[in-house]
Amino acid sequence: MSKFIFSSPRKYVQGHGVLDQLGEYLPALGGKSFLIADETVWGIVGERVKSSLDKANVEFFYEIFNGEASTNEINRLVALARKQGTHVVVGLGGGKTLDTVKAIADELKQNVAIVPTAASTDAPCSALSVIYTDDGVFDTYRFYDKNPDLVLVDTQICAQAPVRLFASGIADGLATFVEAQAVLRSHGTSMVGGTPTIAGMAIAEACEKTLLTYGYSAYTAVEQKLVTPAVEAVVEANTLLSGLGFENAGLAGAHAIHNGFTAIKGDVHHLTHGEKVAYGTLTQMVLEQRPDEEIAKYVRFYRAIKMPTTLKEMHLEKESYENLVKVGELAGGEGDTLGNLNPNLSAEDVANAILAVDAFSKTVK
């Protein structure tokens, strides 16, 4: 018998300037806070965060995030939080910071507040983390009993981040409905362990529609550091709609192939999560035998927001076929989601599709 599960954050807050209200939400979550951000992010938002928490009389301790969502980094920060005696974990920054913070809160059995400083991934709302080795190679997904207690997104701060990160969030979000449809077709399970819900599928579809409708105009606004209604819509799609969509409807080929790219050494690792997911999405579409014009529409859109659609743009143009097969092997490994696309795909099938995307993209005008 099918089991339907829908999971979501306790509260989602988005808007221009809402970072200044962070302190107002923390007493209800536990009060004394363990704040985690990398040095760059803390340099941007630290003073405002401190002012907000001081105004709300919230005690806090800040610690630098070292940059990798690895088990060793999680254990280091857990030990510090225990030493400080904090009651709620607050993460500020990008996807790896936020994934680490969720793991820390899970270890401590405490509430967690997520404050993304770029609309660059759909990680903030989910009850899972992607865990890497200390060297940045994909290790595993880590699942939690609950979603974050608070997700607070200041669109003014997101609009000041590099536009490349904003575009990467759009690319990550565009995978949501593509993968959700595959999971539904294959009778796969969502990331919360159930059959994709009607709500999850509807949200995933709304995510795609929002991004294709407003994504380019929002991108051009963020190039100018502006917040417009289109930017607000796309930030919500990148963060909330994509997060709820992928979690409650599932992942398939695009993210598995993204993870597979970690099998290759070199400049591909200088790309963002969304840039690699964009190429993974096109690869999934080839494996699904989607119509040429549908794939071409995605290629044109990705180009408009400067996302990679060729192997040269992925820094993989000189990669051997054998290494592309290794991408397919890792993508199809136990614990990843390629089987939700097609459980019978071989590593060679994936390698061939990666090469086919490159060939097709070069012909799209």
UniProtKB/TrEMBL annotation:
Taxonomy, superkingdom = Bacteria
Annotated residues that bind glycerol are located at: D122, D172, H255, H273
Pfam families xref list: Fe-ADH
Which cofactors does it use?
Zn(2+)
The molecular function GO annotations come to:
glycerol dehydrogenase (NAD+) activity; metal ion binding
Q: Does the keyword Zinc apply?
A: yes
Provide the residue positions that the database annotates as binding NAD(+).
D38, G95, K96, T97, L98, D99, T117, A118, A119, S120, S126, L128, Y132
The UniProt note on the cofactor reads as follows: Binds 1 zinc ion per subunit.
State the NCBIfam families in the record. Answer: PRK09423.1
Protein's UniProt name: Glycerol dehydrogenase
Species? Rouxiella badensis
